[in-house]
Here is the input.
Amino acid sequence: MRGMWSTVALVLVLAGLGAYIYFVESEKPAPGLEPNEKVFAVESDKIQEVRITAGGETTALVKKDTGWVVTEPMATDADPTESASLVTNIASMEQTRVVDENASDLAPYGLKEPRIKVAFKAEGDLSGEVLIGDTTPMQGDIYATKPGSNKVFLVSSFIESTFNKRTFDLRDKRVVKFDRDKVNSLELTRGRDTLHLTRSGNDWVIDAPMKGRGDYATVEGLLTRLSTAGMAAIVEDKAGDLKAMGLDPPSMRITVGMDSSRATLEIGRAEGDSSYARDTSRPLVFTLDKTLEEDLTKPFEQYHKKELFESRAFSMDRVRISRVADGARKTWEFAKTKGAEADKWQVTPEGGQAADADPAKVDALLNALAALRLGAFAAPAARTGVDAPVLSAAVSYDEGKFERVRVGTVGNRYYGNREGEQVTGELEQSAVDTVFKALDEALAPPAPATAPAAAPAKP
Here is the structure.
């Protein structure tokens, strides 16, 4: 009996203790909810100047109407992303914990000779500076202090990636500067060869050396790469012997046009995994990463659109096809008509009468035509047979647009050319054979409709 009362008493004591802990502890603020004290009471958009010392280099940045610029150790534009990161992190930097209110020796924290110094000036004569030392043993925070103070506090270790920057990291490293949205021409020059493209609405047109349609994805991809590419390293802030670096003359020149303004990147001699280059509007010489150079030096052929037809099967409404077989040329015209439930196709042989065509087989023919794609380009003086084509197709599509393609043959090779373009290229034999086969099947009369089965006789 005494054991039972002891147990009950113990339960009551524990319950009371639990209630005490609940009511007392519930009055305390939850850990982590109190905001940490800011290192500086400043707003990021009010900061006008920043000075960073790291890696033995000091870089000064000043905010101008046009953006941030580097003023020390040289005058140049600053990297917009890096500049924004600096002021944002200065304004948001917090003391995660105070280690020592009055440290007698700053050396154990790496603050006697700090690795990083961050100073700023802001509107209203506001200024500040913080010294950043070693990381804590657990690597989660960094010791910091302010000049003239022995108070040591912790800041989060992630800020090191923001402030541990040398001049090269903070300067604008774009290889060539231009307004991406205003570009309306592009010229690529290698030796004596030049490719010139002009924007026409939403398309790119090749003006030289052979007129044709530009490949939109390839051209836009090059412009995006150019507008975002960064220097691998700076060789000289003021170019010296350009000839020694293969820049006089350059091995390649890329000129981006924006109405009356131009931006030009020149690429010189390769050395190791990089190549010398320069933006002709600036005096410095820098290097390009090898992968970037490879993107910029693609064969000119890749900027030409390879698909012979702009139209697709669903957009074609009239197709006139001529084919040479057994020495004779025959011509047919396929025309789409609107049916009550679905589109219908009729085929008319030259000089003959129109007849219904199987829609599925006509679609197969149109898809085969739309799939014709140029491979290797033929030399301008090469024989291709397109002047006496074995196959030609004139297509009306999208309610008024028109295009014509010719296919020639020399030996066992097929070549294709689009009317109005000077480019002629090889076609895969299997692709042309597919067109011939689909044409034969589309010319065959449709299979007669199957009569419905007769209802069984009633007994």
In short: The chain has three domains: 43-170, 180-303, 316-443. The mean pLDDT is 89. The radius of gyration is 37 Å. The chain is about 20% helix and 35% strand.
